[in-house]
Amino acid sequence: MENKYQENRNHPKRRRTLSVEQYVEGVLNGDRATIARAITLVESNSPKYFHKSQEVLRLLMPYTGNSIRLGITGVPGAGKSTLIESLGTKLCDRGHHVAVLAVDPSSSVSKGSILGDKTRMEKLSKNQQAFVRPSPSGGTLGGVSRKSRETMLICEAAGYDVIIVETVGVGQSEITVRSMVDFFLVLMLTGAGDELQGMKKGVMEIADALFINKADGPNKQTAENAKAEYNRLLHFLQPATQGWETKAYTISALTGNGIDDMWNIINKYKEKTLKSGVFQKRRQNQLSEWMDSLIEEQLKRDFYENPYIKEILTDTKKKVTEGTLPPAQAAEKLLSEYNKNK
Amino acid sequence: MENKYQENRNHPKRRRTLSVEQYVEGVLNGDRATIARAITLVESNSPKYFHKSQEVLRLLMPYTGNSIRLGITGVPGAGKSTLIESLGTKLCDRGHHVAVLAVDPSSSVSKGSILGDKTRMEKLSKNQQAFVRPSPSGGTLGGVSRKSRETMLICEAAGYDVIIVETVGVGQSEITVRSMVDFFLVLMLTGAGDELQGMKKGVMEIADALFINKADGPNKQTAENAKAEYNRLLHFLQPATQGWETKAYTISALTGNGIDDMWNIINKYKEKTLKSGVFQKRRQNQLSEWMDSLIEEQLKRDFYENPYIKEILTDTKKKVTEGTLPPAQAAEKLLSEYNKNK
Hints:
Structural class of chain A: alpha/beta
Keywords (chains A, B): Hydrolase
CATH superfamily of the largest domain in chain A: P-loop containing nucleotide triphosphate hydrolases
Enzyme class (chains A, B): hydrolase
Distance between the termini of chain A: 55 Å
Oligomer: homodimer
InterPro entries (chains A, B): GTPase_ArgK, P-loop_NTPase
Protein name (chains A, B): Methylmalonyl Co-A mutase-associated GTPase MeaB
Radius of gyration of chain A: 23 Å
Order of helices and strands of chain A: HHHHEHEHHEHEHEEHEHHHH
CATH class of the largest domain in chain A: Alpha Beta
């Protein structure tokens, strides 16, 4: 009977709408259901929820920031999930509250290439001190990145003091994650032969540490050799963080070997950069740059999605690439048409 | 008497204004005085010359592109001028016409840190088959870059078939030069001890070749060692150009040793990338990206220079970096005010 009754309703599971105050109170109390709903609110693509979600965030802002924000990248198969499960569980045991988020622009297309399968972090997901959230769907990296940043703030306000942001190396996603975390680490694998091949362009230069995973069993020596090789290379690159030397380490997410060291390195990093002020400065810059990038993305979107511009852009671009129209003249013409037709 | 007469005039050297047709004809005839005036026209910051300069460019466009465009970067003291003088003179002797331009965003501040002193390339400057133009003054890298790109087109239309664009490693200038040339080379020095220190972030990854200069006399062996070290590193990086392996070489701009090899490498590169289509594709993309960047710069300029935005931006940004206003809310507020007040 109840079933039949529900079927007659448009939204069988419709829940009471929460007010801004209820969202804020629930998050600050660490209520998991409200946290999840607050995240769903900021993840919404619907403009009608934008102002509400921003108001919730504004009221939560004073309670954010009391965490260490870790970014983790690595190729598929590098062992990110095993590492996060292992590190996260250890930290929960020590009294920390750990939130795990993902930035994965591909997940909206391929349906959850990371964190989609919750069973990958089964143990951590069930831990009452942990909160595991898959990558938001919804298009562009810019969109995914805004949602992840805001989710991070909600988790901080809810009392999570370790935020782990995972990403796979798709497009610009590492750069995006680097721009929202304090400490960025790259998880790597050794392989037969050429250890360093396949390193994505520029990734070493934004990392605060490289960890070579699966340094266990017969693979241990290979991993140690790779570590030495990476350290040689890193020595010649400018470090990602002023006053901090990026180094390579070995780790075994499987046996747990090196996980304590990893956490010690992160703490040493935090202590050092807090003392020098680099930590605080980076966070301020990240907020400021985040605002700038939102503005600039919107300015571009307004332009390129203008119906009149859409109509003439292809033809204009064709003339430019064919070399019959100088780019500055083309740009000037498009901008003047835009200003007339918006 | 003549002197006195001139002093009484406001513009003692005022020249007859050229028409668009006169500019175009003069440039196509390779008339040096007209080329110089056409460049001055595109370098002008005055809006009243913009349309005229763009019309000149539009008419010249069909005659552009018949050249190899080389970008050269290197720290001050690496020997860029000596190399360009040596390579340029050699190429003129072989019948080429060589134009040397500079992209140096610092020159407007520090008054010509590169190419400002013409005596640095005295021999080449006097060569009738060469055209040496210092970096345009005028503010932003964006502005300097537009002027240099357009100057390059004028030189090509005038028959110069080798365009050398020089830059010092200031800010984003290498990336800018990379985006306007076919082949990008980095000139380096060996030093005592740590050969690879001081390499600017990301430069190796946009280079088509590294040349270690001053491989002469007692320095020869050190240079050879550095070359081996760089090649080791380059092996692990993705190449800047698809289908072309970036390698390190030694050279002596002073003795001329290795200059012929350099030219052979450049020709081999051109041949290979023309055959694969990478050469043509990159040029098309460069034109298209140039137009996009001009549009996006202007959209940002319109926004940030809007008087109302200027008035409220500082305060808004302060709230964002202090963590009391969420970035997305700040961006939304600024954009909505902008749309109301433009």
